[in-house]
Design brief:
alpha+beta; single chain; OB fold (Dihydrolipoamide Acetyltransferase, E2P); about 35% helix
Length: about 190
Amino acid sequence: MKLTKPQQKKLVSVLITLVVLLLGNYFIESPQIDSITKGSVDPGFYRVIEVSDGDTIVVDMNSTEERIRMIGVDTPEKNHPSKPVQCFAEAASKFTKNLIGDQAVRLEADPTNSNRDRYDRLLRYVYLPDNRLVNAEIIKSGYGFAYTNFLFEKKEDFKNYQRDAEQNNLGLWGKCDVFENKYGSPESPATD
């Protein structure tokens, strides 16, 4: 079967279009494919890959794993290289994991704080889709302390949340013998 010149041009045009479409899907991430392979996440939200401990999570940030240290909250140590596991560390980690669940989170920097800590973790406020601030919920529920050694915009609120949790013996305040460490911050003792 012999094609006429117009038919040949049309066939070449169709073939070029197909090649461009196939190469475009190969070299450029397709939003449809991306949402199927990574789980659908709203813009501005990131999928949580891991809850490392009560105040540190790992998120999938544009196909890169990024460690996030929550601003203004300090939970008892679970994975510190030079400290033993502290009282309420496991409970704080479970609380954060249960609070976040399988929800994606929105991250927000604090303009008065640095972008990263000395361990190269991003410093962020972590928000749930319903706008609850995970950092604050941890302190309000007594699973962590207000970490006030550095400047951050919500410092006074966090100190008030801690005072309320302490007065009501919530979480670690009712279970651990909290003491002041050498930096003047509250800390829970090691578990034996």
